[in-house]
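User: Hey, my collaborator sent me this sequence without any context and asked if I could get a structure. I don't really work with proteins. Can you help?
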Amino acid sequence: MIGIAMYEVTTDEGITASEMMKLYDLIGGSEAIPYEVNGCNSCAVGLISIEFADKELDYNYSEGSFVYKLIKSVIDDMENETEDGLYNDGTIWLNRK
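Assistant: No problem. I've predicted the 3D structure and written it out in structure-token form, which is a compact way to encode the shape of the chain:
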């Protein structure tokens, strides 16, 4: 189950409505929290499902949290990227736009 779905974008671009709907579909079409992680030269923008935030993260997704640091490590270093864009045992989907 994907609980967080995000696109990596440059700091001066956003995502379209259709891209947001893809992220929404990836997390199962449930209620979601907007989420952003800032990196050195880009950022990740997307959604966290309410269920995942509650049960898996205990609503701890702030800057110092494990999930924030994991996503930041991926957007800050291409060597940390996976081919399929899945991280943390498939619970996080992160791809470039």
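In plain terms: The longest helix spans residues 66-76. You can pass these tokens on to your collaborator as they are.
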